[in-house]
Specification:
single chain; mainly alpha; Fumarate Reductase Iron-sulfur Protein, Chain B, domain 2; 2 domains; 12 helices; 0% strand; globular; binds iron/sulfur cluster
Length: 192
């Protein structure tokens, strides 16, 4: 399926088309050497290797790329970016795919990036991860009534082990260096 067809269901079509074109431009110099895949610590769990991903991007297979779980499994370790002989910012490419999926993905694709959104927002508001709030927000974001049941046994085990404290208050005021850092990233990423 062409990139154009893949975007047809999205109401942000123009934004997505532009973002995908920029990504294609970014990885256009890929010579398919496989160095990024060879050094990736998460490649064993990916359904499409980073090398194969860039080939699909260059050939415009947006729908197939977004349907993959590869970009959601990228932990932004930057190993690939440091090692790429063509100087391609592979990690930034994976981040671009996360943003594309978030803007224009199907419900299933959004599940992959939804956790990232909620996780980062949780840190921005609390100054650190607050696990109980995080999972509640994740369940609300996913709008899946069965999801809490799936995680309930794990939550109970963590509570018994003293790993989560549902009633602990956050004293973070949303100011200081962390707030400045979030503002800078939003500026760099042109986030709304
Ligand atoms: S390391 Fe760079 S050139 Fe080699 S396959 Fe990966 S992106 Fe392409
Ligand atoms: S930045 Fe992502 S794709 Fe690159 S090596 Fe690390 S986990 Fe793999």
């Amino acid at each position: 399926m062409s990139a154009r067809q893949g975007m047809s269901r999205c109401d942000k079509e123009e934004t997505v088309r532009k973002a995908f074109a920029e990504l294609r431009e970014m990885v256009n110099g890929c010579m398919q050497c496989g160095t990024c895949s060879a050094g990736c610590p998460n490649v064993h769990s990916m359904d499409i290797s980073p090398r194969a991903m860039w080939r699909k991007v260059v050939s415009g297979q947006l729908e197939e790329v977004l349907a993959s779980k590869t970009y959601a499994l990228c932990s932004s370790c930057y190993t690939c970016t440091v090692r790429c002989p063509r100087g391609i910012s592979v990690t930034e490419g994976m981040s671009a795919l996360k943003r594309l999926s978030s803007a224009c993905g199907t419900r299933e694709q959004n599940r992959k990036t939804g956790f990232y959104r909620v996780f980062v927002d949780n840190i921005r508001r609390n100054g650190r991860v607050r696990e109980t709030g995080l999972m509640t927000e994740y369940f609300m974001e996913m709008k899946d009534p069965l999801l809490p049941l799936q995680f309930a046994p794990l939550g109970m085990r963590m509570m018994v082990a003293g790993k989560i404290h549902p009633l602990a208050a956050s004293h973070y005021k949303g100011k200081g260096k962390l707030a400045l850092m979030f503002a800078k990233v939003a500026e760099m990423e042109k986030l709304p």
